[in-house]
Amino acid sequence: MDGFDKGRRIVALFAILALIIVVAVLSFSDRTAKPMQLNGDMLGQDSSETSAEYLQRASDSLDRAEDGEKAYSLVTFAQSLPTAEASDLLEGIGRVNAMIMLSAPAMDLPEPIAGETRKDVFDRQIMLVDAQLSGIGNVRAPRELNGVVVWDTPEKVRPLAESPLVYSIETLPPDAAWGSFGIRPVDTSGTSF
User: Would you say which domain of life the source belongs to (predicted)?
Assistant: First the structure.
């Protein structure tokens, strides 16, 4: 019996030693030690881009977009817009997938149901954010939007670029799928991050 327990202890020690070696080796792997690179499309300003560089890249993406092919576009407003003004601006757009407030992550949106406007959808989302913030001091959601992500054909989106209310429009390739691309904030002050 004593030899059997000694053998189990040796096997257990070897197993622990092997586990320690595996953990040590994996801790130096690029897959666990470094942040993973995003593998997909991105909308918004890269942290290394100046505002002028981003504006040019965004404009080029909209110019290159193929007519008749629906695609996702990040529409950044020149200044924060009240929900009614944002709703009016987006009147001819087929789908608004998300809204952006300040530098918070984009918030998914449903389409308006019968009898509703986009303003109603924006206001309802703001009320949900307020409800989530309740109990955290006097923190409230802003009542204005900084941008939206839309899905429509370029010929429907391009007219938005003519509005003084729009700072930039960046369009992804038409094969980009909702949920598979990232959205970064855009600096509308004219300076880089």
Answer: Bacteria
